Amino acid sequence: MFQLMTGKEIVALTTELISAKKQQGAFSVDLTVKEIRKVDAGGALDFGGSEFQEASTTLLKPEKKTAEEPYGWWKLGPGNYLIKFNEKIDLKNHGVIIILPHSRLLAAGGSHPSLAVEDTPDDIQVLLSVGIEGLAIKQNARVSKALVLAAGS
Length: 153
Description:
CATH superfamily: Deoxyuridine triphosphatase (dUTPase)
Radius of gyration: 16 Å
Distance between the termini: 7 Å
Shape: globular
Largest sheet: 9 strands, antiparallel
């Protein structure tokens, strides 16, 4: 049996938050951008994993508008990108993290598929799709929401 955790409970399991107060929702935590990589070429998948190959990517560097600005922007053209989040959620293998696109990401013209994560790797990633209009994302922007279904007794 699984139970939806509150935002406060998720925050207690999360490290590397930018601002717990701003990121905590009633039943979610906002996830922020740590790193963006451009997907250059697809990888390979097989059933057993012995022939698995990650996609080829290029790390993008954010650019500051002025030298005084503490954070820069990624100006993304059309295509696919891998986003790594700042936050790490440790479920101790007793639940599932559901990652959804933030409503503001959708409103800005970007999207990523929903993702269910069971094994809570160190770095959670999503595949961001950017349309022909392009998209600008500032460092540490909130782009996704994490909900947690915890295994109950």
